[in-house]
Amino acid sequence: MTIQNLEPAHYSSVKRIYEEGIATGNATFQTEAPEWDEWNNSHLQHSRLVAIENGELLGWAALTPVSGRCVYAGVAEVSVYVSTKARGKGVGKFLLEKLIEESERNNIWTLQAGVFPENASSLKIHEASGFRKIGLREKIGKMKGIWRDTVLLEKRSKAVGV
Asked: Are 74 and 109 in contact, with CB atoms under 8 Å apart?
């Protein structure tokens, strides 16, 4: 498996994998995957990765800014999605580790993630990659009329912004 920069040509596979995550009900509050222009404009231009094996895109990872204020320029939210058929094979952890490295090369000092408590595999890979639980955001948003909680996780760089 190799990690490459996510390019516009990858987006049809990225979108399909995102839709698989949406379908689980435990990956995101999003109800549908955006088209390329919206996705592209909402994510940082750096630190966009895809995992590819035998020509097949198995997963992707990217960062979203947490704020437009310059004081938070080094803080980003993590997204990691893995294809249904590649789950449980270490793809997510591999992507997250590479995303952390890439984020630090681009002067990101704090990464955060909001994960549904039911998404045990995502919580596991974040904690294994050095994220710590900051707390539980109770009833932070509704999904299909039901309040959902998220676990807030954070990873502070030991190399950037020290």
From this structure: yes
